[in-house]
């Protein structure tokens, strides 16, 4: 057990955990967030995706001891900041069960930050690491495209 | 008017509806599985009471309160629960209107409803539903005397609305069973062998027990689980216990050749007439002059929920409280009671959602697992989670199926139709029985229950023979279902049950017959249909697809394929046209566009319906192009998303949906309507593009290469 400090959605936290504890367990069970989800624990589905220092990472495998003073953003952070993706996902009913949604929202936010006007193909490529079993893909793609600036098709 | 079936069984109005300050609580025994049922139910209630959807709060499946509606399955919720809620609201509306007339001292017919307020225009007196309902329950049963509002007056139903439950899911608020508040909660994991057919042969619990934070290592007969104060410890203990346990397979290993295994191991053979099996001797097979034969195959598939199964359980003073994402809260309660020799009254099960399940997945087993851990750890609340590999290994798979088709043609008409369908059970759901069980932990625990034997389902369009009977007009048909009772691979219900395999075979075969007859496949189908609604969905899907222009692609052959079915021959009509490209070098199939046309009767939630239909196409496309559970001589080798790949964002086609609304005709369940047509539309499109007929799912590049080399006609 050791002490770790990290910033989550702008709020500093100190947690006591085993060094090898995956970030996902820290976020869900110690910091009390529900947004990042467990889907596979093996970087295969994307349900756990969060931003670590601005980069999308799989919280299911990153151990806490690699995150000294890191800044983490989860879907709760996007919601708090009123990220336009959330209203766009609502407007498109861009899910069925919504279990995949938090990871996808975080990934899409990171895509739009780097490329505010992605094409359909670019959105598909960016989200390729995210599995959705309900088949909501097209709605997700449309919702993401609706947020990008309208100049590009 | 006779009451809708669900209401007949639960006639107490208070079981269904309650007025609470400014919201109306509507309870349904059905459960939200991500299919949007809560939204559709809210729309029906809001329509009947003339309030906004936001004023309705829908509470789903709970054994301690609300109506008991058994299972949420088979696309029946709108037809059963929807009809019941509509009648309940009509009755309550009539009751409250009568109260209003009395209270305001005016004749009933002078009252009207404006924005959910009962008004008397002459005197300008008014009363809200909430004032009229008051705090006390209605205390009466539904009578069937109230008439629901005429569909011509609908202002919500048939439109698009925003799903009422999605905001929480998009903002990281508590939404799923795994989100049970973690304060004071213990974390559970289970430990099993390579398959559910493996029994514990030995275990050393010392290493796992020594981990700091372990509360309980539970070994009950061959049931093994662990409870810890934190989740990471529980997960590590699971891994250690898995290393320190030995397992032995009971019964033969899965056959490496399911096609011949199924065809040579059937135990029951039943003639299916009008969708219903009839026991008795089989009639002789008849054929005509020009006879075609083809055998189709679908492999074992997974439900593959993105969120592995989980459950919450607490055992205090002889009472067990469970939260579960089971599709049947009352069924799982009674089944757990039977397996644990408890009284059902000592167990409560409340439904809390998980990721989409698409049928009978690990949900029920997880509820039983959590119950086992809770009983061994009294007084504490345990959140039990299966890990990814647990779900892949132990969920009951969608059974493999072989469809042997034979038909004769005379000129451009089918004269004889013969089908032999082979499969294992599609109904391995839990059941309340004291000596046998369908729950894994019940087979493994001390004083175990035997595994329930497979029995041929005799219901209309149940199981293997769902949609085995073509919707076409045929002068003669002989359809036989063959049940293989063997359970060397555990199987159960998956979205669409037999309809996926059967419609795949029927609609591929219709294409083959059309080509043999030298007729356009669309015209060939229409010539054999005697239902205008069927014809209209087919024509609509064809023109929707024609409006799609495929892009220029190098080395690609483009093709289109159509397939049609009416789910269970009595629910939603759906036609799917797929446009795809096959790369001449890699033989990879790329889906370009899916056109869906569907007629689900009176539409309730338009976008919810479209969402279900298009999700069904994409999921079925994944099953068709990519999926098959694989086995070695012990157990499955499909243990994660790399060894069991599914459709990715880079592989999805664009989809257009046309919903044909039929105001005034009954609303039909649609959640499984596109599962069947999709694989056939893909097979027909690949044939159209390449001249190669694929009859075995999945349609991988390798399958295409082999079929091309066999050069089958
Ligand atoms: S849970 Fe992390 S990628 Fe699946
Ligand atoms: S919406 Fe259910 S997994 Fe994506």
Describe the protein's architecture and organization.
- The complex is a heterodimer of chains A (about 150) and B (about 725).
- Chain A is α+β, with helices and mostly antiparallel strands and about 150 residues long.
- Chain A is built from six helices and five strands.
- Chain A has helices spanning about 25-30, 75-80, 85-90, 100-115, 120-125, 135-145, and strands at about 1-10, 10-15, 50, 55-60, 70-75.
- Chain A has a five-stranded mixed sheet, with helices on both faces.
- In chain A, a hairpin with a 2-residue loop joins β1 (about 1-10) and β2 (about 10-15).
- In chain A, α3 crosses α6 (about 135-145).
- With about 725 residues, chain B is α+β, with helices and mostly antiparallel strands.
- In chain B, the strands form seven sheets. A seven-stranded mixed sheet of chain B has the order 9-10-7-18-15-16-17, with helices on both faces. A six-stranded mixed sheet of chain B has the order 13-12-23-20-19-14. A four-stranded mixed sheet of chain B has the order 24-25-26-27.
- The chains are: A alpha+beta (about 150), B alpha+beta (about 725).
- At the A-B interface, α1, α2, α3, α4 and α5 of A face α6, α8 and α17 of B.
- The complex binds FE2/S2 (inorganic) cluster (FES) (2 copies).
Distance between the termini of chain B: 57 Å
Task: Classify the secondary structure makeup of chain B into a structural class.
Answer: alpha+beta
**Distinct ligand kinds:** FE2/S2 (inorganic) cluster
Strand order of the largest sheet of chain A: 2-1-5-3-4
- How would you describe the shape of chain A? globular
Total number of beta strands of chain B: 27
The biggest sheet of chain B, with number of strands, parallel, antiparallel or mixed sense and barrel status, is:
7 strands, mixed
Largest interface: A-B, 57 and 60 residues
Poorly predicted segments of chain A: none
Portion of residues within helices of chain A: 25-40%
- Regarding quaternary structure, how should these chains be classified? heterodimer
Average of pLDDT of chain A? 95
SSE ordering of chain A: EEHEEEHHHHH
Total of helices of chain A = 6
Give Rg of chain B in angstroms. Answer: 27 Å
Uncertain segments of chain B = none
β-strand percent of chain A reads: 15-25%
